[in-house]
Design goal:
7-stranded antiparallel β-sheet; Alpha-Beta Plaits; Protein argonaute; 9-stranded mixed β-sheet; globular; 751 residues; alpha+beta; Rossmann fold; RNaseH_sf; 18 helices; single chain; Ago_PAZ
Amino acid sequence: MTQVLAQDSIGLSAVTLDRDLQQILVYRYRVIIESGFGEQDLPVTQTRKVARLAARRNDWKPVTDVAHFSVASLQPLDNLNIDAYGCKCTLEFEAEAVLEAAVDNDREAIERLLNQDLYRAACQLAQKRDAKGGKSLKACRYAGWAEIEETQPSERVSARSEYLELFKTLRLTPEVLPDGHVILGLSVRHKLCARDGITLDWVIKKRPQWMKDIQRVRHRYTDQGKAAAVADLHGVAEGKTADSLVPGTVQSIYEYHKARGRVPPVESNSIRNSQVVRVSYGNKVQYEHLAGLLEPMFDFETLQKIDSPLLNRIARDLKWPVMDRLKASAEMVKGLVLPGFVARVVPLKSSERAVDNLRPRFDLRFHNGRTGETEKDVLNCKAFRGMTRTQVVCLAVGTKTSPEALSTHFQKLQSACQQLSAEPLPTWRGVTSVKPLKNAFELDARLSKTPPENTLLVIAIDKSIDKAEIRDVAFRHKLACQFMLTDHYAKTYSPNYYANLAAGVFSKGGGLICALGEMPGEVDLFIGLDMGGTSQRAPGSAFLFTRNGAQLGWQLADLQSGERLGDEALASLLHKSIQEYARHHDGDVPRRITLHRDGRFFESLDVIQAVERQYDLSISVLEVIKSGAPIIFRKYRHAGKALYKNPEVGDVYRYAGLDELILATYSGQELGAWGDKVSVRPLRLRKRYGDETLETLAQQVLLLSRIHGASLYRHPRLPVTTHHADRFATLRQSCSLEALSHMDRTCPVYL
């Protein structure tokens, strides 16, 4: 464990309140449902809907559920009869009650009330700033956090775009600790938004070629006081117009939205003449909607496809140094007062028990007992284990590059692979005599004519080629492949480029670049578990690694919906993982397993406990949450002035009383020239189950973040377990699941 330097102090980008919330007086009401609520909805869903409607009916006083058909408010409610959005219910006052922060369910209720009050405070702050002529703000509320957004485009980024603007946005995430102490995590970023007047209908008429790349849309209106809804886009509804009837009604699509106040009078003609599109909301049911009432959502991936010059132009300005980020956050929350809790926002002071550095010794093992600290040490130490494929076949598909240039690329790649290995490489074919194939059909014919076994393909392509189509052909022939682009800028093809490419070839070819030395804890098997999305049916997946970092393979469960694995799917993945471990260890099952859940663990702990009993083993469950965590930093003094910099590897901020912490897995120094121009993005780790300590689990994450398998010069931010889950999710979006099902589950085909 590394000691924090005396002149440095670790801090969290967060504020607190000038009071604690150890005990909160609330007013409790019984809910009497009359009509308009779906019988299929769970009681908790119905009760939370009532709470939201009750808050709206009572000037947005914070209201939340505390039990089935029972809600609590911070202040007495004046209007107890609710009739809105087709829902009718009555609230009946029961009694005053006290919520205790030390009680888990009560603390969660306090956090929900706090989040609602944060939204009210943000609204009041926006009004106050407007009255004083300051920067104009607006507030938004989400499930779990509130946001403050500047209404004028950010002065940090000059987009100079006819369709896109960027706005400075601050997320405030409330956390109530068991002792009543409050942490309001601050995360400032730029939100990419369509300019005012840029609707999906504008895209269809002015930029129709973009439609295939725009995946999501946002409502241009809000309902029930919630943030504007986001939907998945499924394309234009052919043959439909705004006058087409809503299925099952006698009302047109246009009249349906107009009756709900969603059509601005000044836009009525344009919206009536807009296209109809199909959208869905987190499930497979598709609805018809008016493109004029939707705005396209632009993210970095979408911009890369539709307007890469714009993305390249703004990318540099989107990077914020730590000091700038902290100053912007402080400015945006200045003067924030919570009306319901009667509390002011004040700076957060880090206690000694909250901060620490947990960095273990990074001991990577290479060939013949040699050691190093990073994967690139393989260039000197040689790989821990050589490739197991019997041959590597080099091909080119659809590229305009000459056969001579292709041969040069392949020879340099083969040489780079040999530099990694202390053992002779498998046979390489197609290196010197390259005969490019025209397309995927010719590739399929070639592989069908001479089907290679136990082979890795290296496929050279141009950026214009449909890589997914080529990859699906290879997968259907049960062949892993490593792609190589031949139309980068000439300066890209440096020795480092070929070394990185060689690492991917080496790992997919069965080699192991390095192993981990001493691993904290008694764990035998790590499993990275991922659901893979909330808006589409996707397979659950598990990625298996032994305690020394060697990958045992990956497993799939049946297609799931939502972000929760079903009980049968979770049990199946665990059984397959344990059996795969036993297959490699003379039939012995692991005694201790650490399960890394990519994101929140909504699955059943009953399944975990049943597997523990069946195999007589123990499992620890750790949530690895990669987004939304407030940054951590180091504060130091220079020439009598307080300055801020990025954290060191292993710096943590603990949430006292909870099995939860914020962890930096890399430092600014590791980013080279960019190290002082960007803010390190930490992970949020939350222990959900098991007897392993959170500190040990965090140290395991740090060690597992040092290995990648296909990148020698930058290790992942995530542990390799969930990093591979991320890469698999990216592959799955463009890959046929049928083709993927043919692949060897021991090969990291997604790298």
